[in-house]
Amino acid sequence: MPALVVVGAQWGDEGKGKIVHCLAEEADCVVRYQGGNNAGHTVVSGGKTFALHLIPSGILVRRAHNVIGNGLVLSPRSFMEEVSALNKRGIRSKGRLHVSLMAHVILPYHIMLDILREDGGRGLGTTRRGIGPCYEDKVARIGVRVCDYLEPDTFKALVDQNLRIRAAELSRMKPLSAIREEVFADYARLRGFLAPFCRDTSVFLAEHLAKGRRLLMESAQGAMLDLDFGTYPFVTSSNPIAGGAAVGAGIAPSAIRGVLGVTKAYTTRVGLGPFPTEMEGRMASRLREIGHEYGTTTGRPRRIGWLDLVQLRAAARTSGITSLAITKLDTLSGTDPIKVCVAYRYKGKRVEEFPASRRAQMECEPIYENIPGFAGDIQSVRRFADLPVRARRYVLEVEKRLKLPVAIVSVGKSREETIYRDRRSVWG
Ligand code: IMP
């Protein structure tokens, strides 16, 4: 009865969507356990490109069930739009997409608060989807859960209460009556659309596990955007690390048998905050263009950096990563030498562990080692042994230094452009 967690080992956008799409063929159920429609999972399936935000990437694999767990925040409007858009492209969700009754609901005022705070100079660089304010309500115990949203009287009472609580801030944007109107505009239609998908997904998943079925747990964002272990406060408001999977899906931690960490062959970050190995200039622009490094959700250009082993070691520790998938190795082709950060220097001292303090995270300097680069088109390679020797050496160096097996190497966007070194061991 194994559950495999697929975690982003960096700052998100590592290519988890593609990896989940590859592994979903072997899963009975794909489960999102945190975040919301701030995520952007680009998946190429059957020659078509899909940008998924809220719905698990397993929706593109016909046999898999898909779960939006209790740990998510869900905008009913985005949900309807995403499901409808998939439906138009021939991807059916009815009967195989399940939404937790305990997930929290993003309402228009959460989005307003997110925008108000970003425009007010808070400077986190959020996706402006209302994610943070919705999780704030959850922790403050005033949140609206899906089960509350489905009960019109409960929903109305909670909205009125919450608008009163948030009145001082919200009325800087619009009169409260106008906000209330926006919350209830289309309510009956949105509720009617959402209702058939909702159930107690913890019970559903327990039944799957009891029958020995395989769960693939899909994180959004990445370890360094984790609310507890990321570069706080420049983080998202949930826990992408593997521990979040048990809480955010309502499964037992003991069901988790393997944790696959997904890392790019280099590093990217969107939004603001520390990024020790960030590079600038021509090299950054080159990798940004070759790797199409623009946000799936917001279109923002991603910041680019070298691979950071200090940061990856932290991710491996906090998520208990058991194997790695390295993505976008093809993007590095033609880069020589390739730099890899092996430690930091802070206040004249060598630092091996990712620091907790925001100041240290901002001021630490990377210590690099050069690894010889490789050249040539590797997108058509399907066996590890067929990669250029220096490309193999790069992967093996990462493996050796992190003491983790690299089970999967991705050399292109589509599912076919993947090298499996040890597919079976991934599931643990
Ligand atoms: P929020 O999740 O919208 O509150 O944004 C908080 C931080 O997480 C910002 O730096 C965002 O850019 C970042 N973020 C949120 N979702 C993603 C993602 O899917 N990929 C990469 N960064 C993300």
**What are the bound molecules?**
inosinic acid
Question: What is the level-2 CATH architecture name of the largest domain?
Answer: Alpha-Beta Complex
Spatial strand sequence of the major β-sheet:
9-7-5-2-10-1-11-15-19-20
Q: Tell me the name of the CATH class of the largest domain.
A: Alpha Beta
Q: Any idea of the CATH topology of the largest domain?
A: Adenylosuccinate Synthetase, Chain A, domain 3
Beta-strand segment tally: 20
Average pLDDT, all residues:
95
| Proportion of helical residues | 25-40%
Structural class based on helices, strands and sheet pairing = alpha/beta
What count of helical segments does DSSP give?
A: 15
- Quickly count the domains: 3
Tell me the span between the first and last alpha carbons.
11 Å
| Uncertain segments | none
- How big a fraction of the residues is strand? 15-25%
Shape descriptor: globular
Question: Could you write a compact summary of the structure shown?
Answer:
With 428 residues, the chain is an alpha/beta fold. The chain has 3 domains: 3-101 and 199-258, 3-Layer(aba) Sandwich (Adenylosuccinate Synthetase, Chain A, domain 1); 104-192, Adenylosuccinate Synthetase, subunit A, domain 2; 264-426, Alpha-Beta Complex (Adenylosuccinate Synthetase, Chain A, domain 3).
Key features?
globular, ten-stranded mixed β-sheet, 15 helices, binds inosinic acid, 428 residues, alpha/beta, Adenylosuccinate Synthetase, Chain A, domain 1, four-stranded mixed β-sheet, Adenylosuccinate Synthetase, Chain A, domain 3, 20 strands, Adenylosuccinate Synthetase, subunit A, domain 2
